[in-house]
Amino acid sequence: MTSSFMVSSSTPTGNNRRIELAAMDLWILGRINNVFVYPSEINIDQLKDALSRTLSLWPFVVGRTILENDQHHIIEMCDNPIPITLVINNDLKEWSLDSNVIVEANNKLFPIFIDEVQVTKFFNNSSDEPLVHFKLTHIVQSNEWVLGISWYYPLRDATACLHFSNTLSRLYQQMESTQPLLIFR
Which superkingdom is the protein from (predicted)? Predict the structure, then answer.
C-alpha cells in the first residue's frame, strides 16, 4: 500500500525571499540520497509535526527554483509544501544491509526506499518541483521503518542535509535543535 501527503512549514518564514545561486552552486544534476533505518515504530503524526517545525527553521528547503532571464538561477523561499510518500511493505522480511545509515548506495534494493528529486525538471524551469522528497517505508515483517531523503544539491552539500536531518530528528524526539538558526538577509 502506498499513499502520499504534503507537509508545510508550521510557520511560514520564507516570505518569498530569494537566494541567487552562484555558478559554483549550479550542479544541476546533483542530489544527495540518504536512507535511515529505525528498528521501531515511527509515529507518522509526530514525524509530520517535527518536519513542519523543521521546515520553518529551514525556509529555503520549502522553496522552489526559478530561472530568470535564462541566466539567473534562484531559489525562492515560497513556503511550498514538500511530499512524503508512505509505503507499507509486506514483501520484505527485514532490512538487508549491514548499516542503518546509507548514503548513495549502489545496492539494487536502495532505490525502492527513495523518492528522488527529479532534477531534470529544473532544466525546464519547473517551479513546481520540490527541492526535497521524503519516503517512509514500513517493513511490516520486521517492524522496521526506513526513511529515505532526496536532497537537491544546490540547497547546499551533504553537511547541510545532515544538519537538516539532525534538526528533524531532535524535534521528532521533542528535543531542542542544537544547530544554529539560519539567517537570510
Answer: Eukaryota
